[in-house]
């Protein structure tokens, strides 16, 4: 997964409703009405949030009869994790090199 | 760091300019003009992007004379990484339990 696909994920996660839905889904899939229950918002507004999450690749949904079930795409979170870890490691390596350099000067 | 502080970080990272600035900064701090160079945009627009990054806690900046230097806050990326890892682990643990349950049924 390239960095270009991370931007829609970050946008999707920047909203408190969508963030809460993602956290709820890590405990297992749920129907749309089950997911909507804790939120005081109109169904079309809530469905729009789910659409943004689905377009970002964070969740996928499936319709069985009249019930739509939503589940987390675990791999998308792995992409976020890997990206943050990669940047952190690069930044740490740079600090280590700086420390080594300072030590050389002190000797 | 609580989950409430993650939302502004995710919003800050959802823009391609700001995302690129964060990736650039993991290779070391830079002056504002150095950071702005690759982008074809007016200075006030670019400064607004930096402000969003700074308010989200992803970067910090310091003015020395006439030059403002920007650097990454490594800890903020650790927060993103930990959050994604935590959710992934929860989702994986749930899958493991499901697998165990299926095996019990098969025995």
UniProtKB/TrEMBL annotation, chains A, B:
Q: Which Pfam families match?
A: HTH_20
Among PROSITE patterns, the record links this protein to: HTH_ARSR_2
Entry superkingdom: Bacteria
Classification via Gene3D superfamilies: Winged helix-like DNA-binding domain superfamily/Winged helix DNA-binding domain
User: What region holds the HTH arsR-type domain?
Assistant: 1-92
GO molecular function terms attached to this record: DNA-binding transcription factor activity
Q: Where are the transmembrane segments?
A: none
Q: Which PANTHER family match?
A: SLL0088 PROTEIN (PTHR38600:SF2), TRANSCRIPTIONAL REGULATORY PROTEIN (PTHR38600)
The protein, known as: Transcriptional regulator
């Amino acid at each position: 997964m390239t960095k270009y696909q991370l931007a829609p994920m970050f946008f999707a996660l920047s909203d408190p409703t969508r963030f809460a839905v993602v956290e709820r889904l890590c405990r297992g899939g749920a129907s749309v009405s089950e997911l909507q229950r804790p939120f005081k918002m109109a169904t079309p507004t809530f469905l729009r949030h789910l659409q943004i999450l689905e377009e970002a690749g964070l969740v996928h949904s499936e319709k069985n009869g009249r019930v739509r079930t939503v589940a987390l795409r675990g791999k998308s979170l792995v992409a976020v994790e890997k990206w943050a870890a990669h940047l952190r490691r690069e930044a740490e390596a740079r600090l280590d090199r700086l420390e080594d350099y300072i030590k050389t000067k002190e000797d």
